[in-house]
Amino acid sequence: MKTAQEYMDSLRQMSGEIYFMGEKVENLVDNPHFRPHVNSAAMTYEVACDPEFEDLATATSHLTGKTINRFTHIHQSNLDLVKKVKLLRAIGQRTGTCFQRCVGWDALNATYSVTYEMDEKLGTKYHERFCEYLKHIQENDLMVVGGMTDPKGDRMLSPHQQADPDLFVHVVERREDGIVVRGAKAHQTGAANSHEILIMPTVNMRPEDADYAVCFAVNLETPGIMQIFGRQTNDERKMCEMDQGNRVFGIVGGETLVVFNDVFIPWYRVFMCGETQFSGMLVERFATYHRQNYGGCKCGVTDVLIGACASMAEYNGAARASHIKDKLVEMIHLAETLHTGSLACSYEGSQLPAGNYYPHTTYANVTKQNITRFIYEIGRLAHDLAGGFIGTLPSEKDLAHPVIGPVVDKYFKGVATFPTEHRIRMARLIENMTGGTAMVESMHGAGSPQAQRVMLLRDAKLEQRKGFARKICGIIDDEDQ
Ligand code: SF4
Ligand code: FE
From ligand 1's centre to the CA of 140, what distance in Å? Predict the structure, then answer.
């Protein structure tokens, strides 16, 4: 397993083509816009080397029998699924933000299962190939980003109908030694500081979309791959230590648009190529694995936010007020409701034909659907508890200024025994955790709300539920007569 330091050193040696604010980024690790995201991902390496987290953060590879970082593990039991959720919460408590590495973990588990079923049905040889790739990831403890979301263009058109054929990643050439791909994947959390990307299709496809039903893995340094890093709310704050709020780990994951300009992928890295009938299965598997997570990581992050609000109440002298306690209780209730959803879908998970374990689909979708609401409610309560000054605070530079610094210190003070700086730091943290980019991730990460609702309805067994009602109210069905 890599240490956090070794992970950072490995990134320094990479030479991917990454742009931010119109400029090529040469040294990502030491760039203040990227460093917080690197630090956050590095925590997935740090905990694996910490004896306290050995049980949660490491696992035994079912392929090699070696001890591996759990973020590269294929779930072998319901307990593995539970440990995943608990691990994500524990890391969220230490970073207060997204640590990105779960996306690739979910992509590995989804692809592992689908390649097996594809081979069983079609006689292809993808699973064995994929297992070799997985061994490479496990043995080198690599960070993989799971590449699912295509730009998608006109949402009413399927991939092959788009005016621009590149709006979904697709095969442009099939060669004896591999394929050439073109297109892009959007909103790729952690891609800038990952080693590899595992590309999957983003929608269910029909036979006409065969060139778009493609799954493959590629090193992000490969020629033809270019990344464009997105702006975040308040990202200029990264130039000021205190004003960032979460100075070490930043805001959410750090996302890029990953562009593939005719990239060559050798066959041994290709895990689906034209099997449209399995694209929907891969999308659904990945989505369910990722939706399972949100009552893990977001609860860990919410634990930090609840702690920030409780601290702020103390700094404001309001901690004993009953309405303050009640709002904190409400935040706790919402956070633990989210966590129980993630635990439930893990405990109720089942074994797939490939042998790995898979969360209960409905419960995973319910969990993610709740996230799209509860995180906003938690944010609303945090704003209420923190007070309006989180929206009007002067900067760290004002506090340090020889003339106005003492004025800021005097008038932003709460309870006399707490330093003003502590109150400002806590306010910035609450602002950071409840601002634009952080909230949007809760809404759209792992799929927008409607994507969960489609799956909830599909698995709802409405006919069975109608039958329950008909019987109880005395309507006799034809088959009952
Ligand atoms: Fe992991 Fe997604 Fe949570 Fe980020 S938001 S920590 S990638 S599950
Ligand atoms: Fe996410």
Answer: 22
- CA–CA dist 17, 368 (Å, integer): 33
For residue 94, the ligand closest to its alpha carbon is 1
Q: What is the pLDDT of residues 411-434, one digit of tens each?
A: 999 999 999 999 999 999 999 999
Q: 40: Cβ below 6 Å to ligand 1?
A: no
pLDDT band at 200 (very low <50, low <70, confident <90, very high): very high
Query: What percent of the chain has a predicted confidence (pLDDT) above 70?
Result: 99
Torsion angle, CA of 52/29/295/196, rounded to 10 degrees? Answer: -100
pLDDT at residue 239 above 90?
no
Task: Please report, for the chain, the start and end positions of each structural domain, with discontinuous segments joined by +.
Answer: 290-461
Nearest-CA residue for atom 4 of ligand 1: 98
Tell the residue nearest (CA) to atom 5 of ligand 1.
98
Q: Is the CB of 372 under 6 A from ligand 1?
A: no
Q: 10-27, pLDDT tens digit by residue?
A: 999 999 999 999 999 999
pLDDT digits (tens, 9 = 90+) for 291-300: 999 999 999 9
What fold characterizes domain 290-461? Butyryl-CoA Dehydrogenase, subunit A; domain 3 (1.20.140)
* Backbone dihedral angles phi then psi of residue 442, each to the nearest 5 degrees: -65, -35
Mutate to test the pocket of ligand 1, among 40, 91, 101, 297 (most ligand atoms within 8 A of CB): 297
Closest CA to 368 of 307, 299, 319, 428: 299
Phi and psi for 276 in degrees, rounded to 5?
-55, -30
